[in-house]
Each structure stands twice: as structure tokens, then as C-alpha cells.
Design goal:
This protein has 417 residues and is mainly α. The chain contains 21 helices and no strands. α16 packs across α17 and α19 runs antiparallel to α20. It is globular and about 65 Å long.
């Protein structure tokens, strides 16, 4: 066995195979959830065969983000001690295992990921372009054949929930903008990814396709995020290159576009109506999504007040919320077994104050470092994560936790580039 390990470790093709597996994971992330776990298993096996354990451990020890992610996951393990629902707790640990695994796989192999991070980003963009074009093509066909409008929200998406599909597409837009305008002062600028985005029309077409994709997905969170995140990164470049007039024109367009979207886009109508309604007159039995979410947040905050220090335990959040839904007779929340739809609140209710501080540190330490270092690419990623954390329990799903764990580790590893 040791001889086999030596031969594999010395085989130059092993790193290539590992890279291809990573590219496949990232390419299929927007397209198929089922193919991701077996590809991750292959990645782990290749990592084990590669050897170099001592060097990998040293790389991990030097990484700050690694210990933050490890600590956050360990808190969930500790939360199993006082949970009542063991099966749900174990499932939660399984879903969140990527928070532990990806930092180990990426941060222990810094050199390869620093060298290949651009092609990895490109694979992610390509996967999202394929997902977007597939949705448009199939929905055009079905709409013409059955005379039904499929271009709206969950009817439009073929692969993921609209919120996660939108998040992926928005980050792809940020990748295109970043690699289109950011010029590295070295020969590495002339790589495959940079050449692919070298033509303005090519970049514009990609961005327009992805923007159309986000708006057809119809996720309120996605539309808010695309305005805030892409608006931030584009504004940064106008300021960086001293295009003051273009900046003010762009800011005016963003402002007017936001007002128009809030008033004309049907998905925001319930939000506007809710904001106009006094909170003491909101009907708890309403089946309107915005109203239901308001009461879910309210009940979740009650759980936090009663379990401030240690939380209710890993895996207990849904059953505790169901009890409160039943007390208040919130029928839709009971039927759909809804979670808080806010990662900050869910983590606080589950793990208490220490878990909440740990989650905030995972987000705001990289955000502070990126702001200090003027790294707009990482800033755009963190902004996107914060917005989605505010409206989704993102770390409860494979689509959310894999995206966060992988790119958070990758950007931490390549931030100096």
C-alpha cells in the first residue's frame, strides 16, 4: 500500500485528475445536486492518495478561516449533546459536513488552487450559462407547445430553487465583471479565462443572459442581490478608473430601476402591502408568504430569548417551531414545515450566542480583510452571502452549504491574487 501511495503521489497526472474532478463539481453545481456527492467522494480519495500529510497540516494551521469553519462545525457537534431529535441532528451534521471538508481539501493544497483558481471560476460561470440557456430553451418549447407561461419563478427553473439559482448566477456575473476589468501585472493575465472574457461583446452577452435568468427566476432575494451586489462591483470600477460621469449615470439608472422594480414587479407587491399594514393588525392565519415569514421570524426570536446562551440544540429547530406554529394556528407554516428563512436567526436559535458570534466572524473577518485590502471580488461574494443569509437558511441545504464552503475557502486561499 505504501508503494502505491508513493507512485500515486509522484504521478504528475494525479493533480490533473484532481483538478478535473473539482471542475466537474463546480460546473455541475448549478445543474445537478445528485452528481455532487459522488464527485466529492472521488475528490477526497484523490486527496488521500496524494500523501504529503505533513505539508497539508502545516498549510491548514496557517489558515485563519480554517479554524473559524472548524469551530462553527464543532459547535453543531456539541449541540448534539442536548438535542432531543437525534436523527434530525445527524442529518444536519451531514448537510453541513462541507463546512469542515472543503477547507481541508482546498486550504491544504494552496499551490494547486492558487495556480488554477481562474479556470475553476470559469467552470462555474460556464455551468451557470448552460443552466440559464437550458431554462430559456426548454421553457420556450413548453410554452409554445402547451400554451402556458413557464417564464415565472419555480415554473421557470429546471435545476435549483430560484433563490439558489439566482445566487449562483449573480456570483457568475461578478466573476465576469472582475476578470473583464481587473488586469494582473504578469503573464498569468494571458490565461484561458482572461482570453475567454477579452472581448467586450462576449462579456456583455454573458452578463445579459444571466441578468435575464435572474429576473425570470423571480426570487425577491435574487433581484435585491443583483441590484446591490452588481451595483457595488460596477460602481467600484467606475470610481477606480475615475469615470465620475458614468458612475452618476449608473447610480441614477440603478435607483430608477429599483423604484420601478419595487412598484411593477409582481413578486414585490405583497412586500409593499405588508409594509403598509400595521403590525398589530397582521392576520396570523394569512397564507401570504411575506406574512407567514414575518410570524416565523417572530416565533424564532422567541426561541432565542428562551435559549440565549446555548440554543435549543442541533436538529431541534423545526420541531420547536412546529410547536409554536400549532399554538398560533399558523396553518401554512405547519403544512410546509418551514424553517426561519434567516441563517443568522436560525444559528442563534440552534447554538446560542457562541454559535452566532462564530457565524458572524466567518463572514465579517473576510469582509474586513477584503475591505482593508480593496479586494472588491471577495467583497461582492460576502455581500451576496449576507443578503442570502438574511432571507434563507442557506446552510440547511446542499446548494447553499457547498457554495459557501467551497468559494469561501477558495477566495480565502487566493485573496492575494
Amino acid at each position: 500500500m505504501s508503494l502505491l501511495n508513493i507512485n500515486l503521489a509522484n504521478c504528475s497526472s494525479l493533480n490533473k485528475i484532481l483538478l478535473y474532478v473539482v471542475l466537474l463539481i463546480i460546473f455541475f453545481l448549478p445543474l445537478s445536486e445528485k452528481i455532487i456527492p459522488p464527485l466529492i467522494v472521488i475528490w477526497v480519495l484523490l486527496w488521500l492518495f496524494d500523501g504529503n500529510v505533513k505539508e497539508k497540516i502545516i498549510s491548514l494551521i496557517r489558515s485563519r478561516i480554517f479554524f473559524l469553519l472548524i469551530f462553527f462545525y464543532l459547535l453543531h457537534v456539541i449541540g448534539m449533546i442536548y438535542t432531543e431529535n437525534i436523527s434530525e441532528g445527524l442529518f444536519d451534521l451531514e448537510v453541513k459536513f462541507s463546512l469542515l471538508l472543503f477547507p481541508i481539501l482546498i486550504l491544504s493544497d494552496k499551490e494547486n488552487f492558487q495556480k488554477n483558481h481562474r479556470i475553476i471560476f470559469f467552470a462555474f460561470v460556464l455551468g451557470n450559462i448552460v443552466a440559464a440557456l437550458s431554462c430559456f430553451i426548454f421553457n420556450i418549447y413548453w410554452s409554445l407547445r402547451y400554451n402556458v407561461d413557464y417564464f415565472y419563478y419555480s415554473n421557470f427553473t429546471l435545476f435549483l430553487h430560484p433563490s439558489y439559482a439566482s445566487m449562483y448566477a449573480i456570483f457568475s456575473i461578478c466573476i465576469i465583471i472582475y476578470f473583464r476589468f481587473y488586469k494582473v501585472k504578469s503573464e498569468s493575465y494571458k490565461n484561458f479565462l482572461q482570453k475567454s472574457f477579452s472581448k467586450k461583446w462576449f462579456s456583455v452577452i454573458f452578463i445579459l443572459v444571466l441578468l435575464a435568468y435572474v429576473f425570470n427566476l423571480g426570487s425577491r432575494t435574487g433581484i435585491a442581490a443583483v441590484i446591490i451586489v452588481t451595483g457595488t462591483i460596477i460602481s467600484y470600477y467606475f470610481i477606480l478608473y475615475k469615470r465620475v460621469i458614468l458612475f452618476f449615470v449608473f447610480a441614477t439608472v440603478i435607483f430608477c430601476g429599483t423604484i420601478y422594480t419595487l412598484n411593477k414587479f409582481p413578486r414585490f407587491a405583497p412586500v409593499i402591502e405588508f409594509l403598509k399594514t400595521p403590525l398589530d393588525s397582521v392576520n396570523v392565519s394569512s397564507r401570504e408568504n411575506v406574512v407567514v415569514r414575518y410570524f416565523i421570524i417572530k416565533e424564532s426570536l422567541e426561541l432565542i430569548r428562551g435559549n440565549f446562551l446555548f440554543g435549543i440544540g442541533t436538529g431541534d429547530i423545526k420541531q420547536e417551531l412546529i410547536k409554536k406554529y400549532q399554538e398560533k394556528k399558523n396553518t401554512l407554516a405547519i403544512e410546509e414545515n418551514l424553517n426561519p428563512h434567516n441563517q443568522f436567526i436560525e444559528t442563534f436559535a440552534t447554538l446560542g450566542i457562541l454559535g452566532e458570534v462564530s457565524l458572524l466572524m466567518m463572514i465579517f473577518i473576510p469582509f474586513y480583510s477584503s475591505t482593508y485590502g480593496k479586494n472588491i471580488f471577495t467583497i461582492s461574494f460576502i455581500l451576496l452571502i449576507i443578503i442570502n443569509f438574511l432571507f434563507e437558511s442557506m446552510l440547511n441545504t446542499q446548494a447553499g452549504v457547498v457554495f459557501f464552503a467551497f468559494f469561501n475557502s477558495l477566495l480565502s486561499n487566493t485573496k492575494n491574487n
